[in-house]
Amino acid sequence: MKLATDVAHCDDLMKALEGFRWHAARVVDRWGITLADRLGAGARLLVAGNGGSAAQAQHLTAELVGRYRDDRPPFSALALHADTSSTTAIANDYGVQEIFARQVAAHGRAGDLLMLLSTSGASANLLVAAQEAHRVGMTVRALTGPAPNPLQGVADEALCVEAASAATVQELHLVAVHMLCESFDRALERRRLPGNGRWAAMLGEGDGHGKGGRFGEDGAFGEDGGLGEDGAFGDNDGLGRKDRGLGEDGR
Fold first, then answer.
1. PROSITE patterns in the record, alphabetically (predicted)?
2. Phi/psi at 108 (5° precision)
3. CA 217, 218, 220: angle at the middle one, nearest 5?
4. What is the pLDDT of residue 243?
5. How far is 132 from 26, CA to CA, in rounded Å?
6. Cα dihedral sign for 175, 179, 180, 181?
7. Would you tell me the crossing angle of helices 52-65 and 166-191 to the nearest 10 degrees?
8. Residue 82 phi, psi (nearest 5)
9. Which of 14, 27, 94, 246 has the highest CB neighbour number within 10 Å of its CB?
């Protein structure tokens, strides 16, 4: 009986994947290109979910801050549930429905992206977060269970998994996360230019001490680097955005 149940779960997963993969590939490829454009220009990705979806949200941010496959620069991505002190303080003072929205208000800027994961598509704290993201000018994407659902309705675009089981929905959300990372990396590679300071610093195209290296004029400690005139403590972040870092218009 147990074996038959396990096989049935796999059968359900295969059936859902068959109906999901082609539509998902088109949607997620588009999302990956947008993500590469935005994060490559200095924007930030905020991600949120509850329970197992929170774990998958953090899986996505780990792939962006770390790497998915090949070596590349890190990008700004935050899983909003991961700051337990802030999350519990907000829940205690403002209610659980505000745990993500208040962090969106704190960290989000116009042009940033918010990704929300939910098997039901009905989590109140995610719906409030989506509304707050729109208020500050962010783009909202959602991975959900079957359509229609409330989160699909408030997101700018949603990828909905047509499966009856929450477990199957979560499994396909993980597939979508990995497809998104594939698309993101492909888009970055297409945009990679020889001598680009950020790529050169990470991938060793410079000599390590010259203009193309980590410590040169375009490196981590140069004029356009992390601690230079346009760096993390200057007027902008070295990526052309005045509202990053700790400068006059920073966070």
1. SIS (PS51464)
2. -85, 145
3. 100
4. 44
5. 28
6. positive
7. 10
8. -75, -25
9. 27
Structure tokens at 229: 């005139």
Q: Does the CA dihedral 221-226-232-238 come out positive or negative?
A: positive
Q: Is 11 exposed, middle or buried (0-12, 13-18, 19+ CB in 10 A)?
A: exposed
Tell me how far apart the alpha carbons of residues 120 and 98 are, in angstroms, rounded to a whole number. 18
Q: Supply the mean pLDDT for the chain.
A: 83
| Residue 79 banded pLDDT, cuts 50, 70, 90 | very high
Q: Which residue has the higher pLDDT, 250 or 127?
A: 127
Residue with tokens 């477990």: 167
Model confidence over 112-171: pLDDT tens digits?
A: 999 999 999 999 999 999 999 999 999 999 999 999 999 999 999 999 999 999 999 999
DSSP string for residues in 130-145 = HHHHHHHT-EEEEEES
Do residues 126 and 120 lie in contact, with contact meaning Cβ atoms separated by under 8 Å?
Answer: no
The pair of structure tokens assigned to 41 is 């220009």
- Tokens linked to 160: 């909905």
In the numeric block, the tokens 């949120």 are attached to 48
Position 94 pLDDT exceeds 70: yes
Give the integer Cα–Cα distance in Å for 50 and 47: 11
Flag whether pLDDT at 236 surpasses 50: no
Q: Is 121 left (phi over 0), alpha (psi -120 to 50) or beta?
A: left
Give the contacts of 217 (CB within 8 A, at least 6 positions apart).
211, 223, 224
**DSSP-assigned beta bridge partners for residue 113:** 45, 139
Which tokens go with 157?
């675009």
